């Protein structure tokens, strides 16, 4: 009986030991599998946040316009007898450009001058004779009227002759010639464009809420994509006295120095207006900001010491930020990031709070306050 009880106890112990051993083995395997399923480090690029000087600006787009610009044409018709300019030449005010055939008009002018000279002789003679009563005062008055009429006709013909010589009305640069020697030129036909290039205007529009920040004489700088590394300085010279009721925008004109005559009328330009004293902000690439309806966030990287292999343990931490204005590829961060924080600039889509990260900065997003288009 005793042997049976001992055997029973031994068998019970063996069964229970097997059950507990299996449970221990199962727990060990579960822990091992769960450990193997831990989040692997996510590769991201980062940068250390720094403060930079930030100049508050208003930006607008506009068109370049000449201070004086005109398509020159003749007031009277005629045949082109002489050309005194080359396409693209710089001319001074009063320089002759085109001569129209005027021999007939000059001959008519000489005849009218002769008539006026004769009328003057008659008037002078009768003016003397009226004192001796050889002619009447009425005759002298008629002579004076004839003289004035003859001189007026001569002056009119002189103007017509001068119309046959087309001159530059102001100094500037000519465009491409539109007429040829010997061509019959109807009145009003365009001959060539003339543009005054230095200084030059840029006309642009600003929303009405910006009117309080701009004034005549305020410094501006202009950029055109033709010369991406060049800035053209100037100042606001006029603000329109009327706000467009359709767009609530007001037209502004800036006068720009153009000594090299690189800016041409009709160009598209970007205008920057400094509106306040420079400030210092933490600046980040715009790619570092995740914009959401519930708030803008960035991911910071915290150093939590070493892992079991002695490697740095870097962990992502989500934080909300308040952003300000942008310039180029950069955005000003008003709150949420401090100088010296390590910020994730690319790879945020894979992150959440507490995820380990691995930093690879071989490729960085653009972080240029004045980006320029390239052909690449």
Describe the structure using short key phrases.
single chain, 376 residues, alpha+beta, 5-stranded antiparallel β-sheet, 22 strands
Give the topology.
Elements: H1 2-36, E1 42-48, E2 50-54, E3 57-66, E4 69-73, E5 78-83, E6 90-91, E7 96-100, H2 103-129, H3 137-163, E8 165-167, E9 172-174, E10 184-185, E11 190-195, E12 200-207, E13 219-223, E14 232-243, E15 249-256, E16 268-274, E17 279-285, E18 296-306, E19 312-327, E20 330-335, E21 342-346, E22 357-359
Parallel strand pairs: 1-22
Antiparallel strand pairs: 1-21, 2-17, 3-12, 3-16, 4-11, 5-7, 5-10, 6-9, 7-8, 9-11, 12-15, 13-14, 13-16, 14-15, 17-20, 18-19, 19-20
Helix pairs in contact: 2-3
- Any idea what the radius of gyration is? 44 Å
CATH topology of one domain: conserved putative lor/sdh protein from methanococcus maripaludis s2 fold
What fraction strand?
35-45%
The oligomeric status of these chains comes to: single chain
* Reported CATH architecture of one domain: Beta Barrel
Overall form = rod-shaped
**First-last Cα distance:** 96 Å
Class by alpha and beta content? alpha+beta
- Determine the number of helices (DSSP H or I, runs of at least 4 residues): 3
Largest sheet: 6 strands, antiparallel, barrel
Relative helix content: 10-25%
What average pLDDT do the residues reach?
87
In what order do the strands lie side by side in the largest sheet?
Answer: 3-12-15-14-13-16
Total strands: the figure is 22
Q: Mind telling me the CATH class of one domain?
A: Mainly Beta
Poorly predicted residue ranges: none
Write the element-wise H/E pattern from the N-terminal end onward: HEEEEEEEHHEEEEEEEEEEEEEEE
